[in-house]
Specification:
The complex is a heterotrimer of chains A (219), B (646) and C (257).
Chain A: H1 4-34, H2 39-50, H3 52-81, H4 102-127, E1 132-135, E2 138-141, H5 143-151, H6 154-181, H7 190-217
Antiparallel strand pairs in A: 1-2
Helix pairs in contact in A: 1-2, 1-3, 1-6, 1-7, 4-6, 6-7
Chain B: H1 16-23, H2 29-32, E1 36-40, H3 44-56, E2 59-63, E3 81-82, H4 94-104, H5 111-131, E4 156-157, H6 163-181, E5 184-187, E6 190-198, E7 201-209, E8 215-219, E9 222-225, H7 246-253, E10 258-259, E11 264-270, E12 293-297, H8 300-307, E13 321-322, H9 324-328, H10 338-350, E14 362-365, H11 367-393, E15 402-411, E16 414-415, E17 428-430, H12 448-468, H13 482-501, E18 505-506, H14 507-521, H15 528-548, E19 549-550, H16 560-584, H17 608-611, E20 613-618, E21 627-632
Helix pairs in contact in B: 3-6, 3-12, 4-5, 5-12, 14-15, 14-16, 15-16
Chain C: E1 3-9, E2 18-24, H1 33-46, E3 69-70, E4 73-74, E5 96-100, E6 109-111, E7 114-115, H2 118-125, H3 147-157, H4 164-168, H5 175-186, H6 189-192, H7 195-208, H8 219-223, H9 231-246, H10 252-255
Parallel strand pairs in C: 1-5
Antiparallel strand pairs in C: 1-2, 3-4, 3-5, 6-7
Helix pairs in contact in C: 2-7, 3-5, 5-7, 5-9, 7-9
The chains are: A mainly alpha (219), B alpha/beta (646), C alpha+beta (257).
Chain lengths: 219, 646, 257
């Protein structure tokens, strides 16, 4: 069994890796609402779906998710067992509210991930029935159209927004906590890291949320 | 004067300890493993002794009433620890530390012991630094010092206001290392109830497990009492709530003589009493007197206005303040020894100039220091003490002067020990505050930590080995023998007796009543009339206790009232001995001030012709007066002088 | 002031406990929290009931013995304060005060409000010291130590081992306590010698004793009566990672196995 610190180190490293993935994913997605046609997005989606290097990275990414989730659950049960009898009154202070709810926000993100993968990744890769588009005479899966269609539904759109907000809560604690777990704490830089962590959470969340919102209201 | 052997080595003072070490008998490593040592108490003396003896290879068992050894009350020592390092280049030396300690103790300490203490003081600092004790340092990375009462050099090493804590954690670390190695075993939440003496030698202890109430027996080739002092006789004191002197008292009743019980230190800078429900007094470190100035108003009208809260102390003009220590003792000023400072405060409050609602307080003012080194400078030195004061009193000492008053703090008296720290029971040793040896009639600030660690790290390892060298022929005994049986029977009877009284008054009530008698009649100033009165009152109170104390619950589980009852039963006997000793000592010296014996200026008047001795009291049985033995104090290196701090 | 107290009563580790209600009148605002409980106990003794068992000793905030969970917070509402230094002026007349023991698997209840914190001792026995024998130390000034390092070491070493960090942590984690000790020695040259071994042994012991893991909520720092900083936890993580990656594996001969 790994030591408590090793487990936290694994959690942080995987967490930081997933944050970089979120940033890459976000920058690709944003092409859909920034660029005048959905071609850029579709080409990028095609590249991500077919490039052999990316395919290998995809396996790594799944691994990252699974490890992060697995150890998150293990830690949760261990922590739960460490206090068999809880307090009648619980009133103590905290620095960040969401730090206490990582497992809860994490579980919501997992549910969201399942829906998200099923609707887009699984559909494009396995179930078929994707709309088709032509770019410079070559046929591509029209992932952009699929996204646009989905987000035109008000229910689907608001579901995404809600889930993404929870992801934001998860991220709010994530970055600076990962640094702390990795032992990166310095009287000079930690105050900045803490601010940067929140900044990152806000930017990623607003970035992602802007996509369904823009599609629903503007496009 | 009956004389007895305190086993002081012959030869010049500065070579006695070296000579002892050279001549002391040794125990070879294989034999050490076969020898068991019991240590009662886990404070600086107990923990350091146990760790050092464990390192040497003895089997050590440590007992403490706390839940872990690290909580012993040494942890609460604030100010610092003295050593003759002379790092400040201010002319300090082993001799000067020795001299100051003898003088501070009002020439009632044993020269050879004190010289040894001063000699090993430097080793203590080295040892603690190696353990990782984070003493205060200068910007150059070297150790810093501050000055303390009774000295004109800066020789006190400190770790902010938590020196005792840091030193104890160092000793506790050394102890932990031995626990991990298996040479030391700690038994926490345990209480000593009897010492087993077989063929005249201490051979074991009877212990009560505070959690289960079970009575346990342990064998040892030697027993060390390091259970601290008896200041809680006074009920209100700076001692921990659980601090008790039952181990020393049990030793006394088994035949160990008790030395100088009347030497009780009343510390001048404590937070004043504020109500009847009060359970303890909090010390404000003596180090505050480095920068704080003590005063009361000069004019009675100001005193009255203050008590009516019509004016604030800061509104009293400089010329209307009586900085009485600076006035009376210009050379040492606010840094006179503790007994002198306490008595001066008492003199002012007795004359009606005390402040606070009760009139029982004086001011300790930092305005001058704040002006000189700034609020920041003061905070860096005393921040945590100021915080503590504010928490308790709800007043900000940066803005208004602190109010302080003397309180019982330390007992210089204790089990009589010879040069080897052995009591009059062979195999029974006493270390730290539990023995009487090094401070004479008054202890200087920052010397308690020094003595506790000197005894534990550097003295007992040699002297105990010297004793144990002859014990290698005694195999480990079982604890089934008649002596153990009988001792256990007796302690069980005593507990049953206490439980069966089922009276109407709680243990604490008796304790408070005893404390009042002691404070009133045997406190900062004593006189024959009051002492005689106390000698009548205490036995009466004791009788009442044994008829009317109430202990709820049972004795076969965790019941703190039982231990408390045991402590108070013993306090009721110790109190009487303190008074008896105080009455017999017809002179004033150090912490013992007899109103009949003072100079015209109100200073203590010693009587070296008749009282330059250690009073060692021998127990003679229940409700019988102890017999007095006298150990003459011979001063070879120091000339006996009237103490002068003017 | 008049108060209603809801206090956890439990005979021993084996029995079930429950809350009992007590009413107190005429409590002085100047008295300390523990003196208030003294008054209650005196009252209970006079009514022939068993007094409430609670841990306390020095009553000046340094021994770390006391520790009550007061109205949902360890050591009560005041920051940087132990239970014994908490005064009744922090409460209002008519308040209902709930008092519970520390709750953690690693701290079993002894009686009423007293828990067994010997797990802390076991962690320190695993390596919370420097291995120097008495009498072998070099001169205290032979190794200068930067003032800042020494001050930081002191701040970490100021931990009183009360267990409030474990009590308040949602995971009952002991990371603040352990890291304070690890940091204290890691910051000093005398402690560096065994730093790698120490951190690994102490963390392993901490895990073995059933404390939870750290989620970096920093509640421990906020509730610590001695204001021990969570930067200690980061330092311990750093020391641990460094040790795990870089410390050499001793041979069988070197370990004596």
């Amino acid at each position: 069994m790994y030591s408590s610190i090793t487990k936290k180190v694994i959690m942080s490293l995987m967490g930081l890796f997933l944050i970089t993935f979120l940033l890459v994913h976000l920058s690709l997605n944003l092409t859909l609402i920034i660029s005048s046609s959905k071609d850029t997005f579709n080409l990028a989606a095609h590249f991500m779906g077919t490039n052999p290097v990316v395919k290998v990275l995809e396996v790594v990414l799944f691994g990252g998710f699974i490890i992060h989730i697995f150890w998150g659950i293990v830690l949760f049960f261990q922590n739960w067992a460490a206090r068999p009898h809880s307090y009648a009154v619980w009133n103590h202070s905290q620095e960040t509210f969401f730090s206490k709810y990582m497992i809860h926000t994490g579980a919501l993100i997992l549910a969201f991930l399942a829906i998200h993968l099923l609707d887009f990744w699984y559909k494009s890769r396995f179930s078929g029935g994707m709309p088709i588009t032509q770019i410079d005479g070559i046929k591509y899966d029209d992932m952009g159209q699929l996204v646009l269609d989905k987000f035109k539904s008000p229910a689907y759109c608001s579901l995404y927004v809600i889930f993404l907000i929870f992801m934001g809560f998860h991220l709010d604690h994530a970055f600076q906590s990962a640094l702390q777990s990795l032992g990166i704490n310095h009287s000079k830089y930690t105050p900045f890291f803490k601010k940067f962590s929140r900044f990152l959470a806000v930017v990623i969340t607003i970035g992602y949320i802007s996509i369904p919102i823009v599609i629903y209201f503007i496009l | 004067m009956s004389l007895f052997d305190s086993k002081i080595p012959t030869g010049p003072l500065s070579e006695k300890w070296t000579k002892f070490k050279a001549d002391a008998k040794l125990v070879n490593p294989t034999n050490k493993r076969k020898l068991d040592v019991i240590v009662i108490g886990s404070g600086l003396a107990g923990a350091s002794a146990a760790a050092s003896l464990g390192e040497m290879g003895y089997n050590v068992k440590v007992f403490c009433y706390q839940d872990t050894p690290r909580r012993a009350h040494s942890i609460a020592a604030q100010g610092g620890i003295n050593a003759a390092k002379n790092y400040q280049n201010d002319g300090d030396s082993v001799y000067r530390l020795f001299y100051d300690t003898i003088k501070g103790g009002d020439y009632r300490a044993r020269e050879a012991n004190v010289y040894r203490l001063a000699e090993v003081s430097n080793n203590i600092i080295d040892q603690c630094v190696a353990q990782g004790v984070p003493f205060a340092r200068d910007y150059g990375g070297l150790l810093d010092n501050r000055s303390f009462g009774g000295a004109q050099v800066s020789r006190t090493f400190y770790a902010r206001g938590q020196t005792g804590q840091q030193l104890l954690l160092g000793a506790y670390g050394a102890l932990n290392r031995q626990i991990a190695k298996g040479t030391v075993k700690v038994y926490s939440r345990r209480n000593l109830l009897d010492i087993v003496v077989i063929d005249g030698k201490a051979r074991g202890v009877i212990i009560r497990n505070l959690i289960t109430g079970e009575i346990e027996r342990y064998f040892g080739h030697a027993v060390v009492i390091a259970s601290g002092g008896y200041g809680n006789v006074y009920y209100l004191s700076t001692y921990a709530m659980g601090a008790n002197s039952s181990p020393a008292w049990i030793a006394h009743k088994k035949g160990a003589w008790f030395g100088n019980p009347c030497y009780v230190q009343i510390h001048p800078t404590c937070i004043p009493v504020h109500g009847d429900y009060q359970s303890k007094l909090t010390l404000m470190s003596e180090s505050l007197r480095n920068d704080g100035r003590i005063w009361v108003p000069k004019k009675m009208e100001d005193v009255q206005k203050l008590r009516r809260k019509e004016i604030k102390p800061t509104q009293i003009a400089e010329e209307d303040r009586d900085y009485y220590l600076e006035r009376r003792y210009p050379a040492f000023g606010n840094l006179v020894p503790r007994d002198v400072a306490s008595r001066a405060a008492k003199e002012r409050t007795d004359s009606g100039y005390g402040v606070n609602d009760t009139g029982l307080a004086v001011y300790l003012d930092f305005a001058e220091a704040i002006g000189r080194i700034g609020k920041k400078g003061v905070a860096a030195k005393y921040g945590n003490l100021f915080q503590m004061y504010e928490k308790i009193n709800d007043e900000n000492p940066y803005e208004t002067p602190m109010m302080i008053y003397p309180a019982t703090h330390y007992t210089m008296g204790g089990l009589w020990v010879d040069y080897e720290l052995m009591t009059t029971i062979p195999g029974l040793f006493a270390a730290g505050e539990a023995n009487f040896s090094d401070h004479g009639a008054n202890r200087l600030g920052a010397s308690a930590l020094m003595q506790g660690l000197a005894d534990g790290y550097f003295v007992l390892p040699y002297t105990l080995s010297n004793y144990l060298a002859d014990e290698i022929y005694t195999p480990r005994m079982t604890t089934d023998g008649e002596e153990f049986e009988q001792a256990e029977r007796q302690v069980k009877e005593r507990i049953e007796k206490l439980m069966s009284i089922n009276g109407t008054e709680s243990v604490d009530t008796f304790h408070k009543r005893l404390g009042k008698i002691m404070w009133e009649h045997c406190g900062m100033a004593r006189n024959a009339q009051g002492l005689k009165k106390a000698l009548e009152m205490i036995p009466e109170l004791r009788k009442e206790f044994w008829q009317n104390v109430k202990i709820p619950g049972g004795s076969d589980y965790f019941n703190p009232e039982i231990e408390k009852a045991g402590y108070v039963a013993d306090f009721l006997e110790i109190g009487e001995l303190i008074v008896r000793d105080a009455l017999h000592r017809e002179e004033s010296c150090g912490g013992h001030f007899r109103e009949e014996y003072q100079t015209q200026e109100g200073e203590a008047l010693r009587n070296d012709a008749d009282f330059a001795y250690v009073a060692a009291w021998e127990y003679k049985g229940e409700n019988k007066a102890q017999e007095l033995h006298k150990e003459e104090l011979r001063y070879e290196s120091i000339e006996l002088k009237q103490r002068n701090y003017k | 002031m008049n108060l209603t107290l809801k206090i956890w009563r439990q005979k021993n580790a084996g029995t079930k406990g429950k809350f009992e209600k007590y009413k107190l009148t005429d409590i002085s605002t100047e008295s300390s929290f523990l003196e208030m409980l003294d008054v209650l106990n005196e009252k209970l003794i006079n009514e022939n009931q068993e007094p409430i068992a609670f841990d306390h000793d020095c009553r000046e905030g340094i021994c770390g013995t006391c520790g009550l969970y007061i109205n949902g917070r360890p050591h009560g509402p005041e920051k940087g304060t132990t239970t014994c230094q908490l005064h009744m002026r922090k409460f209002k007349d008519g308040d209902v005060i709930t008092i519970e023991p520390w709750r953690a698997k690693a701290f079993p209840i002894v009686r009423d409000l007293i828990v067994d914190r010997s797990a802390f001792d076991l962690i320190l026995q695993a390596g919370g010291y420097t291995s120097v024998n008495t009498g072998n130390a070099p001169d205290a000034n032979s190794i200068p130590i930067p003032k800042l390092d020494s001050d930081r070491a002191f701040e970490s070493a100021a931990c009183i081992g009360c267990g409030a960090c474990v009590a308040t942590c949602k995971n009952a984690s002991a990371m603040l306590f352990v890291s304070a000790k690890v940091s204290h020695l890691a910051l000093l040259p005398q402690g560096r010698i065994e730093a790698a071994e120490r951190v690994q042994k102490m963390v392993a012991k901490m895990d073995e004793l059933g404390f939870g893991n750290c989620t970096n909520t920093y509640a421990c720092e906020m509730e610590c009566p001695k204001n021990i900083s969570v930067s200690n936890i980061a330092r311990m993580n750093r020391e641990f990672i460094k040790a795990k990656i870089f410390a050499e594996v001793p041979t069988a001969v070197e370990t004596g196995d």
